[in-house]
Write a structure and sequence with these properties.
With about 375 residues, this protein is of the alpha+beta class. The protein has helices at about 45-55, 95-105, 110-125, 140-150, 170-185, 200-205, 220-225, 230-235, 330-340, and strands at about 5-15, 20-30, 35-40, 60-65, 70, 80-85, 160, 190-195, 205-210, 215-220, 240-250, 255, 260, 275-280, 295-305, 310-320, 325-330, 345-350, 355-360.
Length: about 375
């Protein structure tokens, strides 16, 4: 993060609930002004980690430091954060103004200052005229904006967002994503957001922390996570990926259904002919201008076409004895230009720099989280 300092430091954090270990030996640094997303499937431990940072679920072992201060055992009231929950958690009997003012009123701030701060925050979240309304009179998106204004009212050093958009419909969610990110950049507040929505994480985060079964699988920028997944789990969870059974070939080569493919992905950890998993994203499969003499050419047969609006997702299989199935994403123009249809033979190429190789068998899950 360049010259930015670590604002939040988590060291060897473990959280147990009885015999169940929800988080195991988590260590992480979050930098000042950074927007970090905790991403993972339901039950992976991401919300437990957020609650430990907030002091709502104190960790069993480990240490948390915020702005140079050890907060490991402090109650929530003595920590410097604002939090927004999935359920908004607004007070139904208080107006929007009073909801936003709630945290500041407890600090014995003079009333004119409170009124000015509330007006400023409602302006900031795009609701300057809504102060006299009650939560029940607002849409879900408006309620979430009020919850955000309330969380920011005390000018916290850390903003915690626990699946704040998951209860909203797709269009409102997309709009609020942009608004929250713009607001975070404007205020420069260090922010951690929990989500199971990969699109949310990819579009909003400076860095993503992938959590699986209580451990961190990978930490990186959205581009790192998507282009260079560190494990089969990350490759499977973020984006769409082909997982193809193969074997290791000579150094820098792998075999897929009898075809030798060059790859820039390391194969150092596996010996020749040992089983591996070959990964390539559907959008990285190339067919325009490809012949059997093209590097990494794979003769295939088209099994099915799925129209997805701006592109087609094509199901194919290799022409060798294994008839290995895989998917490719082709634009509408390409489909029209090359007249691709079911049952047709095509030659595709797997670019060497876009193939990932894992020295283990891996069966991906089509289950959505």
């Amino acid at each position: 993060m360049g010259d930015k300092s670590a604002y939040l430091i988590i060291e060897n954090l473990t959280k147990k609930f009885g015999d169940f270990t929800a988080l195991e030996d988590i260590s992480l640094e979050v930098f000042e002004g950074e927007f970090v997303c905790f991403l993972g499937p339901s039950g992976c431990g991401k919300t437990t980690l957020l609650r430990a940072i907030a002091g709502l679920d104190i960790q069993t072992f480990g240490r948390i430091e915020q702005a140079g201060r050890d907060i490991s055992r402090l109650p929530p009231s003595e920590r410097d954060f604002g939090i927004v929950f999935q359920s908004y958690a607004l007070f139904p009997n208080l107006t929007v103004d009073r909801n936003v003012a709630y945290g500041i009123e407890n600090r014995k701030t003079p009333k004119p200052e409170i009124n000015a701060k509330v007006a400023e925050l409602l302006q900031l979240v795009g609701m300057p005229e809504q102060g006299d309304k009650y939560p029940a009179q607002l849409s879900g998106g408006q309620q979430q904006r009020v919850a955000l204004a309330r969380a920011l009212a005390t000018a916290p050093g850390l903003l915690l967002l626990d699946e704040p958009l998951s209860a909203l419909d797709a269009k409102v969610r997309a709009r609020l994503r942009r608004e929250i990110k713009d607001l975070q950049l404007k205020l420069g507040v260090t922010t951690i957001m929990v989500t199971h929505d990969q699109e949310e994480a990819l579009t909003m985060a400076d860095r993503i922390v992938i959590i699986n079964e209580g451990v961190i699988e990978q930490v990186g920028t959205p581009e790192d996570i998507y282009i260079r997944p560190a494990s089969p789990f990350v490759a499977d969870f973020v984006g769409t990926m082909n997982f193809l059974p193969g074997t290791a070939g000579t150094q820098g080569h792998v075999k897929l259904d009898g075809i030798e493919l060059a790859t820039n992905s390391s194969t150092n950890d596996v010996g020749p002919d040992e089983p591996i998993t070959i990964c390539i994203r559907p959008e990285d499969v190339v067919t325009r201008g490809v012949t059997k003499d093209t590097d990494n050419a794979v003769p295939a047969v088209v099994d099915a076409l799925e129209f997805l609006g701006s592109f087609y997702r094509i199901s194919l299989h290799t022409q060798g004895p294994a008839r290995t199935g895989f998917r490719a994403d082709f634009s509408i123009n390409l489909m029209r230009d090359l007249d691709i249809s079911e049952g047709r033979d095509v030659v595709v190429s797997f670019p060497a720099d876009l193939i990932r190789v894992y020295g283990e068998a891996f069966t991906h899950s089509d289950e959505t989280v």
